[in-house]
Amino acid sequence: MCRDTEVVRVLRPTLEKLSIDVEVSAAAKSGAEILSSAKFDAVIVDCDDLPDGIEVLRSLRHQTSNKTSVSFAILNGKTTTHQAFEMGANFVLQKPITTAGTLRCFHTALSFMVREKRRYFRCRVEMPVTLHFSQGEEMKCIATNLSEGGMALRFDGALPKGSISKALFTLPETKVAMEPKGEIAWADGLGRAGLKFVDVPESSRDQLEKWILRRIENEAKSSR
User: Fold this and answer.
1) Under 8 Å CB-to-CB from 122, ≥6 apart: which residues?
2) Which of the two residues, 157 and 222, has the higher pLDDT score?
3) What integer pLDDT is reported at residue 221 of this predicted model?
4) CA 183 to chain centre
5) What is the C-alpha to C-alpha distance for residues 135 and 146, in angstroms, rounded to an integer?
6) Least confident piece of the model among 2-11, 36-45, 214-223
7) In this predicted model, what pLDDT tens digit does every residue of 10-30 receive, in sequence order?
8) CATH superfamily of 5-120
9) Is 68 exposed, middle or buried (0-12, 13-18, 19+ CB in 10 A)?
10) CATH 2.40.10.220 describes domain 123-223
11) What predicted TM-score, i.e. pTM, was given to this entire model?
C-alpha cells in the first residue's frame, strides 16, 4: 500500500524475483477495502508518506481476513521503529528503499510468510474419510478440502450427535494414515460440513504440515 513511485519501482521487481506476486494500492481507503475482502500472505504499508497509511497498519490486527498476515511498515522519519512494532508491524523498511535491503528483509520474512500461508491454505482433495463418533457411530464421508486446522466434508444422510473420537483418512498420494480427533464446526443441512481438528498427534501434524507445504510449492510452480 504505497503511492511512492520510487518505492514501488524497487519493491515490485525485487519481490517478483522471490516469486512473490504483488498487488499495489496507491490509496489507504481502497487498500483497506481490498484487505477487508481478500487474504494476503504479507501486507506492506507506507506509514509516513501515504495519508492514513498508519491507520491501516494499526487496524490490520483487528481484521478477520489479514489479522495474522506478515506486515511490513515503510518509514520515512515520522514514525519510529518502536512505534511501528507497537502497532503490529513484523518488519520495518526505512526509506530510501534499496534492492539489497529489501532482499535481506524478505529473505528473513519468507519463513514467516510460508508458515502463515500453510496455516490457512486449503488444498482441494477428493478423499475418503471415516468419522468415528463418541457414542460408537461411524460415518463415511468425502473430504473436499484439507488444511492444517480441518477439512470440508461431503456426505449422505444426517450427522450423528456427539463429538468425533477420530477421523480416519490417508493423505493423498502417500501412505500416511491420520487419526485426528475433531468437532463439527459447521453444517449446512445439505450434506456438507466443516470438521475442525482439536487433537492431532505431533508426528501426524508434522506429516500434514510437510504435505501441505509440498502442495503449496507445487501450486506455485504450476502458476509460474
Assistant:
1) 145, 146, 147, 152
2) 157
3) 63
4) 22
5) 25
6) 214-223
7) 999 999 888 788 999 999 999
8) Response regulator (3.40.50.2300)
9) middle
10) yes
11) 0.62
Report strand pairing: 164-170 vs 150-154.
unpaired
What does the alpha-carbon distance between residue 38 and residue 69 come to, in Å, rounded to a whole number?
A: 11
Burial class (CB in 10 A: 0-12, 13-18, 19+), 43: buried
3-state SS track over the chain: CCCCHHHHHHHHHHHHHCCCCCCCCCCHHHHHHHHHHCCCCEEEEECCCCCCHHHHHHHHCCCCCCCCCEEEEEECCCCCHHHHHHCCCCEEEECCCCHHHHHHHHHHHHHHHHHHHHHHCCEEEEEEEEEEECCCCEEEEEEEEECCCEEEEECCCCCCCCCEEEEEEECCCCCCEECCEEEEEEECCCCEEEEEEEECCHHHHHHHHHHHHHHHHHHHHHHC
Would you mind telling me the total number of residues written for the chain in this entry? 224
Q: Which three cell numbers stand for residue 78?
A: 515520522
186-211 pLDDT, tens digit per residue, is: 999 899 999 999 999 888 989 998 89
CA distance 141 to 66: 31
In whole angstroms, how far apart are CA 104 and each of 40, 76, 89, 90, 162?
Answer: 21, 19, 17, 14, 51
Domain positions in the chain are 5-120, 123-223
